[in-house]
């Protein structure tokens, strides 16, 4: 446990608050750094040119001069920084110059004085910072410092608090990490010192969440340490605010009733075709749901042969879920009645809330829900499916192919695409859920339920934002240890991001934050909709690999090259074939073929060559995954290839050998049937593409690595 002088920081922040300021002066920043063991250069504040000279002579030339003013945060822009003052005359003249520049830049600025700072020897400039992200809360950032961070945006992010291991991964995670390791004879920077600095900044903002930004830029990284040359700290009491959160037990209790209801009421049920309330009723009835279904409509006595009630309060017995199919303006009163009835979940299908700018109405229904302990799904959604209960609480078409994939979407259109793909690919699902505006129930609520749901083996989510990114990240990190979590994050560009007031702030809020933190949470990020769906379909079929050694066996050299490229793109490691295994492969391939990796058996080989080489790869314990590249020939037609692959793979499965096998099939249209046959037998296969099967395998590997399932 590191000993920090928290009382010193508290005194500084109390003074800042008393003066109504939102930033620390440089001397105050120095106090904070000293309190948390953050190394800074020797420095002092002068209020005259004579005092500046005295300070410079005490610490030794050369020195740096910086204006000290709570009203001037960007000192360089104000002409308030002079570097390399070599003697007393330069220091005295420099003092007068930068104070004059500051008054020109901001005539009303309060000038505390001029900071005289020891000038350090050369080193690599990096940035270490922390900011308050609107989605994830406190995050720490690391990258190349100075102007490079703005130009290259080569930076990594992690949630705070951050430990040493994560800090080291941040250092190694930037594209320019090689610079810090030393290039062209330069000595490497002290990684341990940089990592220590990152964790200290992380601890600082964790201990004092009212610190909205801490910006150390540049930090001078040398072979013997890391020194924060410039310190900038912003304060905002609102930065300490946290969203309302429910406990795991509370989430599970509510979500279990929502996903497995004993009774469902449809508020706005209708007997008229074309009405949403009619479609919801038909899907519940025709979908095979066995629980109680109660239509709520004050103008009807019976709907779909079920007694209708004027109000949900009139329904005898308990009701777990109320599906709302009424205009938005009528929702508050109906929700109040549902809350008084004791429903666990309100499924708000109607639009007309926050998505149209009507935030007051949305806030009102959330307030009512909180008062009555009701969880809201939506509003502005298509509903949801839970196939183990034959539950289609939606106005979309029903779906009944049960399986282990749970999917969610923030968009109704994407929800329909998910439904269509699932039906077309015959992908068994446990659930499909629309979350819409996410006024209440968010992806972390769904993750918590699916984590404990024995019917769910993989969770795939389309999202445009996260209401509480920290809760999602923490939940996903836990869930992904046992079940793959696939995320399609829409809105990957930084358009619309507000210009920030500092280097760290400007870098946060973009897609890189999502990318880094999702990865930190063990999430498989999908680049596009089809990728998400194919990962959802294929990853559960693939056995978990035991190690990193991937071998390509191909009948076409061109496919082998493309498959190799795809392996690199997806972070897969092509095995360096040992001499004995190379010799064994050569026993089965023609002299003009190529062992090594890829193993090129050439296109004219009979089925036995495919069979023997695949069997060899499956039998050798040093090989952990196989990628097959098939080329359509009359010697080995597509279905012959598919059937022999299934036969040999199943033979080894019967003997307890389970390795992921994926296949790329090139050829005429017959390869489509062959790929479908392979897929049905647990071998992820695609026609006309080398990239897609490798991407699915790569997704499996990313999950297995983060879950700690790979040996070694």
Automatic annotation (TrEMBL):
Residue span, ATP-grasp domain: 30-66
Keyword Nucleotide-binding carried by entry: yes
Keywords associated with the record: ATP-binding, Nucleotide-binding
Superkingdom as given in the UniProt entry: Bacteria
A single MF term (Gene Ontology): ATP binding
PANTHER family (alphabetical): COA BINDING DOMAIN CONTAINING PROTEIN (PTHR42793), PEPTIDYL-LYSINE N-ACETYLTRANSFERASE PATZ (PTHR42793:SF1)
Family statement: In the N-terminal section; belongs to the acetate CoA ligase alpha subunit family.
Protein name as it appears in the record: Acetyl coenzyme A synthetase (ADP forming)-like protein
